[in-house]
Amino acid sequence: MASTNDLKNGMVLKLDGGQLWSVVEFQHVKPGKGPAFVRTKLKNVMSGKIVDKTFNAGTKVETATVDRRGMQFSYKDGEYFVFMDMETYDQIHITPEIVAETANYLLEGFEATVAMYQGEALFVELPAAVELTIEHTEPGVQGDRSTGGSKPARLETGYEVGVPLFITTGEKIKVDTRSGEYLGRVNS
Question: What region holds the Elongation factor P C-terminal domain (predicted)?
């Protein structure tokens, strides 16, 4: 149990009959009149649904002990993604529903954080940015600004991102894993 005054981003709460909710953001509000309260944005760990919830300040909420482990993506076995625990070398199979959009940026050997609760994988987190090689993109045509100066490029994972016209096939770029946006070239 924890108080709503102790909430932090990333903390996992057990609400509504055992459902797990991750705190995306929170704000303590002390109005001129009336009691203080905490306004939160919570994300359902299983479904990904985001809701706004308000708690009275000091209210007790049940927290879930979520174990975040550093794991390395090993390979894809059928539809499952196989991750290896970096400490115990145990391998776990994670379903595509749990890996979700993270699969767009996963390559063999990439390290990720896997959140576990009672032996079950909840979600997979990658660093904020990853470096990937462009597998294919059309050459940028000089003077073509009708597309706002960007063009589609297929990454080595098969995912497509928008890149500036000067980027060519074979270049290594940095991509934001939260938004899928191009961040810049990687100087080798």
Answer: 130-185
